[in-house]
């Protein structure tokens, strides 16, 4: 029997505001996320939550990602990368249709790529995910991004479902095959409902006579955009346990070698999308398809998805870092070779700024990926950080694509350019595994959940009660009181008067006032401490001088986000359930500040050229935070930082791209 926990304050507020459908979805998703957290056995609260609400994490915790990354170079990964690059250099990596060839798969499978993180007892190499992230980044950086996408999916939302929730029989049967190179997909999205996990319509019915489930995913219930789903492969599929059931289950399915029509039917065809064109991406139909009982993975399908997505988002960031390093290598080669107005392209500030953006985006994605992986390894809750890792990496990847196009112009649009190969995929990264702005909304909800339940619950419960009649039934929507305001008081003076009287005797409201008083004192101390020089603070002793002030700025501004959320909550109250714009803006601010903090910590332990890239990216991010303030000081700091990066690039001293061979131009002008 599944354990049903009480609805969160968010779900209750949605019900009180009259949005019962969304309340049901939010409650189910939160329960699945909580269950995945319990399965992971996390021992510490989220890093970003502590940076906002306290207690402040030690600086060593922020440095844990780069420490892990520096220990993640392995001979096994090097052998796999070399096998892939050899295949690429010989022209055997991609076929005439542009897709990954069996030659490339076989070459890297022989070196253990498809079982890189699978435990050795199941035929894998048993490597850490931080080592895997380095391999995925290097694949993407060297023109093998499609292979990175395939193997990343294989070992995150593919095999992780089995490792986390599978029986010993299932693991012993399927993990050795996966390690040997058999493809496995994860089928959630559907034609009719997209990625909304709680609205999945594919279902199974029990067939006791044949001791199996029968799977139905027809028409709009077809599974769509399923990467690596192919004839003869494996697939974990999310489906309802009964056509009208609300219970979602997960089944591992062995797909037939060809399409079938008869007692049951199965069709597998291309999703027909421009993104991931070098990968297998399929639309799949099932009717009365048999799945033996023993192939059910015991766990709520959405819970398993949350469990797997944390690694999926880290690997997406690693790939984004690699793609941007590749873009930077090609754009830098162009800018240092191409004659522009009055000299080489790289002579001018705007192309230099574009190059700094590409490199800065790569470093940001790399830093976030490894910090999140280190946190997961240390059993820290990834709430907030897994979201920032994905949304920021996808966002900066797309910005870098535009910057690369601005530097290279039409050359980047050539059909033979590897920039063209990843263009649609770069756009897709913003929506796969969750659309970025919706992820930011979820991030704010996760980070503020404890505060809301501990301190805002009293006020919200009073508003909920005010929206019920004397028989305990909801009042009509037109009479809903969503917040305390003068306008509402004029419309409903008696109900509002009773509500205001109730505030004085509500213990939750007094708890909130106590929180405000304590945090006013804390904020005053923080503000006074700003007068103390950063270079004299023990906390920042391991951070190089140019980065100290930026890290301190980010930490201070993150603590101020507690007040931003409090003001939004106080202003909107129950209307906050419909107010996506202010929450999205707060989520974006938190994301930007966390990127600054992570960049400072990550770059502090790396070489000086990387530190200069970090400084340029931080100046860009701080300029975005300030908007068009036209601060001369900020603009001059940005110019100096960009100039430092350009100097390294001109002298071929930028370590982020030093090992990457730039792609020759499709139509060299010297011919």
UniProtKB/TrEMBL annotation:
Keywords: FAD, Flavoprotein. It holds the Pfam family Acyl-CoA_dh_N. Gene3D superfamilies: Acyl-CoA dehydrogenase/oxidase, N-terminal domain, Butyryl-CoA Dehydrogenase, subunit A, domain 2, Butyryl-CoA Dehydrogenase, subunit A, domain 3. The keyword Flavoprotein applies. Residues 96-181 form the Acyl-CoA dehydrogenase/oxidase N-terminal domain. Residues 299-442 form the Acyl-CoA dehydrogenase/oxidase C-terminal domain. InterPro entries: Acyl-CoA_Oxase/DH_mid-dom_sf, AcylCo_DH-like_C, AcylCo_DH/oxidase_C, AcylCoA_DH/ox_N, AcylCoA_DH/ox_N_sf, AcylCoA_DH/oxidase_NM_dom_sf. Belongs to the acyl-CoA dehydrogenase family. This is Alkylation response protein AidB-like acyl-CoA dehydrogenase. It comes from Marinomonas aquiplantarum.
């Amino acid at each position: 029997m599944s354990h049903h926990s009480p609805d969160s304050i968010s779900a209750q507020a949605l019900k009180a505001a009259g949005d019962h459908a969304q309340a049901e979805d939010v409650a189910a998703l939160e329960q699945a996320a909580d269950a995945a957290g319990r399965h992971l056995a996390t021992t510490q609260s989220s890093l970003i939550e502590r940076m906002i609400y306290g207690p402040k994490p030690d600086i060593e915790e922020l440095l844990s990602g780069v420490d892990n990354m520096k220990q993640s170079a392995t001979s096994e990964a090097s052998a796999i990368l070399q096998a892939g690059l050899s295949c690429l250099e010989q022209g055997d990596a991609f076929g005439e249709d542009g897709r990954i060839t069996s030659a490339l798969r076989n070459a890297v499978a022989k070196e253990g790529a498809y079982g890189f993180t699978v435990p050795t007892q199941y035929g894998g190499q048993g490597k850490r995910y931080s080592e895997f992230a380095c391999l995925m980044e290097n694949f993407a950086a060297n023109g093998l991004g499609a292979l990175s996408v395939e193997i990343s999916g294989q070992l995150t939302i593919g095999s992780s479902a089995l490792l986390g929730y599978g029986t010993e029989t299932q693991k012993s049967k399927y993990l050795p095959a996966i390690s040997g190179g058999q493809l496995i997909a994860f089928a959630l999205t559907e034609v009719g409902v997209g990625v909304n996990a709680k609205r999945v319509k594919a279902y199974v019915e029990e067939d006791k006579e044949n001791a199996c489930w029968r799977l139905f995913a027809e028409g709009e219930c077809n599974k769509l955009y399923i990467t690596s789903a192919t004839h003869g492969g494996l697939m974990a599929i999310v489906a309802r346990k009964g056509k009208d059931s609300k219970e979602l289950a997960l089944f591992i399915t062995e797909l037939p070698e060809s399409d079938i029509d008869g007692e049951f039917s199965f069709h597998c065809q291309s999703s027909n999308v421009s993104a991931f064109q070098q990968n297998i991406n399929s639309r799949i139909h099932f009717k009365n398809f048999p799945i033996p009982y023993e192939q059910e993975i015991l766990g709520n399908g959405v819970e398993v998805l949350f469990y797997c997505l944390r690694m999926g988002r880290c690997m997406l960031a690693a790939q984004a870092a690699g793609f941007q390093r590749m873009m930077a290598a090609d754009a830098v080669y162009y800018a240092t070779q191409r004659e522009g107005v009055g000299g080489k392209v790289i002579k001018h500030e705007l192309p230099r700024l574009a190059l700094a953006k590409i490199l800065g985006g790569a470093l940001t994605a790399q830093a976030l990926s490894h910090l999140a992986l280190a946190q997961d390894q240390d059993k820290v809750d990834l709430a907030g950080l897994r979201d920032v890792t994905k949304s920021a990496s996808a966002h900066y990847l797309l910005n870098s694509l535009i910057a690369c196009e601005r530097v290279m112009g039409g050359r980047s649009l050539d059909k033979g350019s590897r920039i063209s190969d990843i263009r649609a995929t770069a756009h897709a990264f913003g929506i796969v595994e969750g659309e970025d702005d919706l992820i930011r909304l979820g991030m704010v909800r996760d980070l503020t959940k404890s505060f809301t339940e501990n301190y805002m619950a009293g006020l919200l419960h009073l508003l909920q009660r005010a929206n019920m009649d004397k028989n305990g039934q909801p009042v009509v929507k037109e009479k809903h009181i969503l917040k305390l305001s003068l306008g509402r008081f004029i419309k409903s003076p008696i109900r509002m008067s009773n509500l205001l009287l109730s505030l004085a005797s509500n213990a939750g409201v007094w708890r909130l006032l106590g929180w405000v008083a304590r945090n006013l004192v804390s904020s005053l101390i923080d503000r006074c401490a700003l007068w103390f020089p950063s270079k004299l603070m023990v906390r920042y002793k391991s951070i190089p001088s140019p980065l100290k002030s930026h890290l301190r700025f980010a930490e201070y501004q993150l603590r101020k986000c507690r007040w931003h959320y409090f003001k939004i909550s106080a202003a909107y109250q129950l209307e906050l359930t419909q107010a996506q714009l202010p929450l999205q803006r707060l989520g974006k601010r938190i994301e930007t500040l966390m990127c600054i903090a992570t960049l400072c910590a990550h770059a502090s332990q790396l070489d000086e050229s990387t530190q200069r890239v970090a400084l340029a990216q931080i100046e860009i991010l701080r300029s975005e935070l300030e908007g068009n303030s036209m601060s001369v000081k900020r603009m001059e700091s940005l110019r100096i930082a960009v100039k430092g990066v350009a100097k390294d690039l001109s002298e071929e001293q930028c370590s982020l791209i030093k090992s990457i061979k730039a792609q020759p131009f499709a139509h060299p002008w010297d011919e």
